[in-house]
Protein 1
Amino acid sequence: MILQAALPAALAFIMFAMGLTMAPGDIGRVFRQPKALVAGLAAKLLLVPLAGLAVVSLWRLPSDFAVGLILLAACPAGVTSALLSHLAGGRIALAAAITALTSLAAAVTVPLLVNLGLTVFAGYDRSVEIPVGRMILGIFLVDTVPLALGLAVQHVWPRLADRSGRVARPIATLLFAAIVVGAFVGQRQALMDHLGDVVPAALALNLLAMAGAWALGGACRLDLADRIAVVMENGLQNGALGIFVAVTLLGNPAMMVPSIVYAFVMNLTALAFIGAVRRRRELIPTSE
């Protein structure tokens, strides 16, 4: 299967490109005033997975799709999150920091939540081998290591990283689109058969994640730029990682269907959100 063979290399390149464009100095500045970062991480690591569990419980999806949606909810932010945060007027450094930290944490958080989903919603028990070690190693090698390498290049050779990042980021976005389209083609029959099940659940998860992040940002009294970044980081998931885990590590192509659907849904709602916050700025030009 071409998709399965190409996925690890493509995802590793995407994460490396993200590392190249995340300036460590910008991330450091976020840490010096950490309230927004803590709120963003709390939403990403707690609110979104809990929303995924709630949606799966209420929708009663087929077991493979239920696990796939929980897998998607456990993933870090998507490759376009910083760009879309910028277009919406969000704080790019905060978005980058949340993406970097949740991507580094993915080697632990994704296997933990996926195994919970397999046990609760797919009927797995101790007699069924769940590839926890292989999953952790796979995510670490294709997600965490390339991101760390990109950040290292950015720190040691900033000019090289800047030049390379200008080329690598568009290529990474195209690779992400190619992964989603390739996965869609491979699973088009399953998508057509279960469109009524998966699309509403994916949309519900996306809207819950964005609305919850917006409410949390308000409760923490974040300014508008920080709230926008937190919302975008929580609404946009790394669907490529979800597809990789489902196909390569779990060997279950049906589990990638929610990641494919969500990849389309999240970009539509992100564009609607960008339009809404731009309109808000026109009506209320003063910053919050």
Protein 2
Amino acid sequence: MPGGKVLSWLRTRFMPHIWCSGCGHGIVMHALLRALIGLNKDKTRTVLASGIGCSSRLAGYVNACTLHTTHGRSLAFATGVKLHKPELTVIDIMGDGDCSAIGGNHFIHACRRNIDITAIVMNNNIYGMTGGQSSPTTPVGAWATTTPYGAVDQPFDLCKLAEGAGASYVARTTIANPRQVETFIMNGIQKKGFAVIEVVTHCHTQYGRKNDRRLPFDNYNCFKEASVPLTKARDMPPEELEGKLVCGEFVNKEVLEYTEQYDKVIEKAQAALKE
């Protein structure tokens, strides 16, 4: 893909970016830009919303219509945009804490409504920007500034959470497979309904240096070794899947989309007023 096309989607005036050298968030951003270009999206009709955190800075670097909102509330803003202008492509960029902690209620209800928004959740198992606190996806036993003797809370499986809440498209991959990140984002954008793409990434600055993954490549290799395709995982016993990252498309179903249903409610209300 010509570099000029990618650059046209970047706000280069905000470079250099704030991410640490070797951060996986840049891989996710590049995959997103390739997906938008591959789908021939119009920058003036593409909206990126984000909350607070390292991952949420991504929206500010993209040359489209962007909303940098409050912590955990980006889906509320994205929902408002989609309801007002259903024809727009709306993408929400979140981190694991932003999505499943303070934003958890918005997340499950966006899944339940099945509103046509693509949620990209960059999961690095920690609050990277605000000091290295544990998040709802921090593995049991892992160090964080709020769990100096190891986390004891059971972590969320974000894909199972999204599936149980009703999302029509759910997929997981890692930054060790950037082409798959691009493919899943493209599939999610094209899905008529709420799409969740969990991209497992890393924060070597906060999480990695205290959990035996100090260098970016340590994390990359860890993801590559731990990744198991969903087709293979289905035939593996639970004990063999311990500590593995099952990657693939978990849900891809047809469900009534929220804005279309809401338009019908408006039509009924307008008809009732005329009677």
